[in-house]
Amino acid sequence: MPQLNPNPWFLTMLATWMIFLLIIQPKLLPFTHTNHPTNKTNTPSKPTPWTWPWT
């Protein structure tokens, strides 16, 4: 089965990961996000009872 032979594609995969880790990732990390997550206070709300029509 030629799909299981890693010879032709292993070097390509390794080169792709090295390009991503050494070139692309350091260029993407310094970008700042425009919307920083904020801590919201969780206020418990009292649920209103459901009025069943048949009761």
Automatic annotation (TrEMBL):
Q: Which family does it belong to?
A: Belongs to the ATPase protein 8 family.
**Localization terms from the record:** Mitochondrion membrane
InterPro entries reported in the protein's UniProt record: ATP8_metazoa, ATPase_protein_8
Q: What is this protein called?
A: ATP synthase complex subunit 8
TM regions (residue ranges): 6-24
The region called Disordered is annotated at: 35-55
So which residues are the signal peptide here?
none
- The protein's predominant localisation is mitochondrion
Q: How does it sit in the membrane?
A: Single-pass membrane protein
Write out the entry's keywords from A to Z.
Answer: ATP synthesis, CF(0), Hydrogen ion transport, Ion transport, Membrane, Mitochondrion, Transmembrane, Transmembrane helix, Transport
An annotated GO cellular component of this protein is:
proton-transporting ATP synthase complex
Sample GO molecular function, one term: proton transmembrane transporter activity
State the species of origin. Falco subbuteo
Residue stretches in coiled coil: none
